[in-house]
């Protein structure tokens, strides 16, 4: 029996836009594991606890709440929560997609991947984030592989894309130069065997889709975490350590901050589908207010230029260091 109740964890201050606008917020703790939310507890019980988080946020004076991690994907992706919440609700998925796309393309450029001559694979392509990433990125790539558990749903996405195929097999990921992975799995789904040499892998999922074994066994690929963003304001203070450098947060959190800075107390990203318009809107807001990618991180650590160069060498020479300069 789960007895712990949601509670206010910290007060967030110091967020200041380039426009001069300011906002504050609160972290609300939801003491449920992914397994409890997705399997063990009745859905209505999970909804009840998330709605209580919304009520706590409203009590503190918040006008919008962002659903983090599995609270954003459980059930109908926030629609039911929004219908019962006293304040506006977003999942943060629109800006998560935007930062995943921006970061992935930047990483491709750094290691020498030319999208028009390369293959893209999207793992979890039938989910809301996966679909949006597929529709925005696929036109930039020579070929696209959509990987999903439901082949019928994956094939439906093909109607919107050219030069794309759908599959349920993770073995197809080995053909890809760029892999975007964003499943709702409770455990890692991608192992060292699933990647080609010189690939860039953007792991947007939380918990991670890419196994820790990849960090130990595959120094020939570049794994980055999607959605790590620098928050504007010289005195940003989260008063809670979630493992990031100071002044940085997940993109989903930042979408909530941007809505607050815009004074847009309306539901934004909800449900199991996203629109390109929503993603583009978060891009505009990020530029307006000063939210930006905070470099690259890989397996909870800052990614060094040496690692990026090593993967670039693998792509070009098939070795970490060209034989001619050893």
Q: How is this structure best described in words?
A:
It is a single chain. The protein is α/β, with parallel strands linked by helices and 326 residues long. It folds into 2 domains: 7-94 and 233-293, no CATH class; 98-227 and 299-319, Rossmann fold (3-Layer(aba) Sandwich). The protein is 34% helix and 19% strand. It is built from 10 helices and 15 strands. It has helices at 34-40, 43-60, 79-84, 93-111, 128-137, 151-158, 212-217, 251-261, 276-289, 305-317; strands spanning 7-16, 22-29, 64-66, 88-90, 119-123, 143-147, 164-167, 178-181, 200-203, 222-225, 228-230, 248-250, 292-293, 297-298, 301-302. A 6-stranded parallel sheet has the order 7-6-5-8-9-10. The mean pLDDT is 93.
Distance, first to last CA: 60 Å
Number of continuous helical runs: 10
| Largest sheet: number of strands, sense, barrel closure | 6 strands, parallel
CATH class of the largest domain equals: Alpha Beta
Helix content: 25-40%
Q: Stretches where pLDDT falls below 50 for ≥5 residues? A: none
Element pattern in H and E: EEHHEHEHEHEHEEEHEEEHHEEEH
- Report the oligomer: single chain
Mean pLDDT, rounded to whole units? Answer: 93
| Secondary structural class | alpha/beta
- In total, how many domains does the architecture comprise? 2
Task: Specify the overall morphology.
Answer: globular
Radius of gyration from the alpha-carbon trace, in angstroms = 20 Å
- Per CATH, the superfamily of the largest domain is NAD(P)-binding Rossmann-like Domain
Shape-level CATH architecture of the largest domain: 3-Layer(aba) Sandwich
Give the CATH topology of the largest domain: Rossmann fold
Percent of residues in beta strands: 15-25%
Please give the order of strands in the largest beta sheet. 7-6-5-8-9-10
């Amino acid at each position: 029996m789960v007895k712990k109740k949601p509670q206010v964890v910290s007060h967030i201050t110091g967020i200041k836009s380039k426009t001069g606008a300011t906002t504050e917020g609160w972290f609300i703790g939801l003491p449920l594991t992914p397994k409890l939310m997705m399997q063990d507890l009745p859905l209505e019980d999970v909804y009840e606890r998330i709605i209580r988080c919304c009520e706590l946020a409203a009590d503190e004076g918040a006008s919008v709440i962002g659903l983090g991690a599995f609270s954003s994907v459980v059930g109908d992706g926030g629609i039911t929560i929004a219908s019962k919440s006293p304040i506006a609700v977003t999942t943060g998925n629109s800006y998560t997609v935007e930062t995943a796309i921006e970061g992935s393309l930047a990483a491709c450029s750094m290691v020498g991947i030319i999208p028009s001559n390369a293959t893209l694979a999207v793992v979890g392509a039938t989910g809301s984030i996966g679909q949006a990433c597929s529709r925005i990125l696929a036109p930039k790539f020579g070929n696209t592989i959509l990987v999903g558990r439901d082949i019928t749903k994956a094939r439906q996405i093909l109607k919107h894309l050219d030069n794309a195929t759908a599959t349920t097999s993770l073995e197809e990921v080995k053909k890809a130069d760029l892999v975007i992975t964003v499943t709702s799995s409770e455990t890692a789904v991608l192992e060292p065997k699933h990647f080609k040499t010189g690939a860039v892998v953007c792991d947007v999922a939380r918990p991670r889709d890419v196994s820790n074994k990849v960090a130990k066994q595959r120094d020939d690929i570049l794994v980055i975490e999607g959605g790590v963003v620098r928050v504007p304001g010289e005195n940003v203070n989260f008063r809670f350590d979630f493992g990031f450098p100071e002044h940085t947060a997940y993109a989903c959190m930042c979408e909530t901050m941007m809505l607050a800075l815009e004074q847009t107390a309306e539901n934004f990203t909800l449900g199991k589908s996203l629109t390109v318009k929503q993603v583009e809107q978060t891009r505009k807001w990020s530029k307006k207010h000063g939210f930006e990618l905070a470099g690259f991180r890989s397996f909870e650590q800052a990614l060094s230029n040496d690692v990026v160069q090593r993967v670039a060498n693998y792509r070009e020479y098939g070795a970490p260091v060209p034989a001619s300069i050893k």
